[in-house]
Specification:
Blueprint: H1 3-24, H2 31-72, E1 79-82, E2 87-93, E3 97-102, E4 107-112, E5 116-120
Antiparallel strand pairs: 1-2, 1-5, 2-3, 3-4
């Protein structure tokens, strides 16, 4: 989680706590006052849920889609880096796995596509 996400999470937790405490401390109020207080608390909870969605859930889903698109676009000749830190050049691509060569020894390693962290085009190709 990024620093901004942590700060937003802490702020949301504090906000929810304040709303819950405010809703619990209404003593001696009439029925109409209690009902309007409950409606206000429900609206505030919905606002908190919407804010959580737009600041935490939606960006995470967007990041996952970008990573999946990057992994689906891997082609022979691309330079890749695995999540384990291995570097190499792709020599064959399957539906859910790929094979790449590392270094001058031409050692071939086969990994699943989800293990790829980044892709770069071959620098030897003309641009």
């Amino acid at each position: 989680m990024t620093k901004l996400t942590r700060i937003l999470s802490a702020a949301m937790l504090a906000l929810v706590s304040v709303f819950l405490l405010a809703g619990c401390t209404t003593t001696g109020s009439t029925g109409a006052d209690a009902t309007s207080g409950n409606v206000t608390m429900i609206i505030m909870m919905l606002v908190v849920i919407v804010v959580f969605y737009f600041f935490m859930i939606r960006p995470e889903n967007k990041r996952k889609k970008q990573q999946q698109a990057m992994r689906d676009s891997i082609a022979v000749g691309d330079k890749i880096t695995t999540i384990g830190g291995m570097l190499g050049r792709v020599v064959s691509v399957g539906s859910d796995h790929l094979t790449f060569e590392t270094g001058e020894d031409r050692v071939r390693i086969q990994v699943t596509k989800w293990a790829i962290s980044s892709v770069g085009k071959d620098s030897d190709e003309p641009q």
